[in-house]
Design goal:
Blueprint (H helix, E strand, L loop, with lengths): L9 H5 L3 E7 L2 E7 L14 E6 L2 E6 L8
Parallel strand pairs: 2-4
Antiparallel strand pairs: 1-2, 3-4
């Protein structure tokens, strides 16, 4: 059985990384970012590193924790 629950690694929490479920041009993905106000970036382009495994896509925010403007 599958679940939408996401179990976050405690190390990620200690590093203040946040995980967002987002919709991209290529479909749904998880985004890992240090940006705590990512909602302000809706509709804007951001630079990310993309990792694909099977049908799952994970994006890592490439702004190095800086606020996107």
């Amino acid at each position: 059985m599958y679940s939408d629950l996401l179990y976050v690694n405690p190390v990620m929490a200690a590093l203040k990384l946040r995980i967002y479920a987002i919709e991209t041009d290529l479909g749904e993905a998880l985004l890992i970012s240090k940006n705590d106000k990512f909602e302000e970036c809706l509709g804007k382009k951001i630079i990310c590193y993309r990792f694909i495994r099977d049908k799952e896509t994970v994006l890592i925010d490439g702004s190095r924790g800086q606020q996107n403007e």
